[in-house]
Amino acid sequence: MTTSAGGAYNFKVVLLGEGCVGKTSLLLRYIEDKFNDKHLTTLQATFLNKKININGKRINLSIWDTAGQEKFHALGPIYYRNSNGAILVYDITDEDSFVKVKNWVKELKKMLGPDIVLLIAGNKIDLEHERTVPLEEAESYAAMVGAKHFYTSAKLNQCVEDLFLELAKEMMEKFEQNSQKEVNRTSRVLVVDDEAPAQSSCCGGTRSN
Ligand code: G3D
Ligand code: MG
């Protein structure tokens, strides 16, 4: 949930993508700066926290990772419910994993509307020579759906920090915009209230004078 209590933003982030694209590796690299640690296999569907600071603003990220159930069955909406941001990960050497990203974009937009910030990460960029997902296709798709696109390598620690930082910035911006909309909406409601007649017919029908 998003709150701004005590001056800190609390954001829920989910990692989504096909099995083996490197979601857990990205998370572990980001939180613990480790790769291929045996810890990896024991990580269960839960979240890890990261506290960051952007321009003096404190942000708590709860980053949710799966226990690998995406390899066996679909992840239900309960996993991404109330998310402020999602990182959709594919493996640049695996075209099917990119198709899966497109499915996730559709599902998240349908279920959560415009309020969720989406970023797309083409992971395993250290395997550039084995790339099968065309660069232009990935980038133009991301632009079309309004998601920034990053190339990452959890293995070589490329762009991992940038990815999460960008997401945090965009979630903060969206939170500010929504708060502003809420203020505008509330003030509009008050004006309408003020102007409402003291007594009015229930259905706007005829009134005797
Ligand atoms: P998942 O959580 O999406 O299922 P994992 O993916 O993080 O478990 O990673 C799946 C495999 O991809 C792991 O290899 C992991 O080491 C590898 N991997 C993750 N990120 C990268 C990367 O950036 N570059 C390369 N080259 N490999 C990566 P194993 O062999 O353990 O299955
Ligand atoms: Mg995993």
Automatic annotation (TrEMBL):
Taxonomy, superkingdom: Eukaryota
Protein name: Uncharacterized protein
Species classification: Eukaryota, Metazoa, Ecdysozoa, Arthropoda, Hexapoda
